[in-house]
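hi! just following up on the protien thing from before. the input was this:
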Amino acid sequence: MSDKPLPAAHPSSPKVTVLMSVYNGRRYLREAIESVLRQTFGDFEFLILDDGSSDGSQDIILSYRDPRIRLVANTTNIGLTKSLNRGLARALAPLIARQDADDVSYPNRLEKQVEIMDRHPDVVLVGAQARTIDSGGSPVRGTPWPRAVTDLGMRWQLIFESPFVHTSVMFRREVVWGELGGYDEEFVTSQDYELWSRVARRYRIGNLPDCLVDFRVHPESASSAYTPQNIQRVRQPLRMNAVRYLRCGDIPERWLDLWVAANNPRVYGGDVDIQSLMKFLDAFRTRFEETHPASRDHPEIRRHLAGMLLRIGLRLTPAHPVKSLGLLIRAYRTDPVITRLALRAHLRELPSRIWRR
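and the predicted 3d structure came back as:
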């Protein structure tokens, strides 16, 4: 591993380190880099780790003469989690902004997030909303997946998934790296969810309602790292968050099995016990409302619950249409507005999906 210096010195004490790891990502890399260099907030270093790429990604990075760019070249591919920790160890700034090598940050992203961190020194982690785009950069219509912005909404969302889009976050290095030790390197996938869960246990977190990044989905982004062994690790933070935010002694293993399988049908198949799944979701919602009375009929929680039902239902549609219909009906009863929007978008996309097959 070695630092590759650029012609001029990078800032010695920047306010923000933009942290990116890239592995064979040349197709979208230039767009990602330029989105960072075009930021309205300029007091940052751009720390890029080339994780053993063999496709010329490093040449693209070295083609830029911007002194804010600092390249760290891993001699071999060590994976995203370890690369990010290497970056955290070498970062010069107190604030870290994550950026993935196939995503795009809007010009005012850093400016808005730094403003929040300056105004609220007790906030350790802040994210933003994201627009999903395809390989060509066109918006992807589909099931809405908004990230909660209220404290109650984020607590509820953490029981099931990350309330943050990884590529959108900014956090305080002294806490995430200095105190918590960064990403858990046992996690090949869902490393962000595990880390944010630990942050949320001790510190204030937040999400901006603004859409500040484009999150790209493409065939290459469906990583082969999503193996049963790696996916099973997510049970740890799922259990921890459910126990904490539902204030209960333990969580049944049956729930963890159902939730992991329902959200990874390609790995575990689509034969999900929907009836048991719904019983758990109903019980969780009731328990959450009992422990957090202000959450009753909370619009963010209704929207998120409907969104979860929609995502699972639409994934199951091809193989299990009857089960899928039951989930879609429940989603409509929970939040008819978001359900109508999602189904309308899904039907618009259906012809192109069929054509691609």
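Confidence is low (pLDDT under 50) at residues 5-9, 353-357.
The CA atoms of residues 26 and 322 lie 43 Å apart.
cheers
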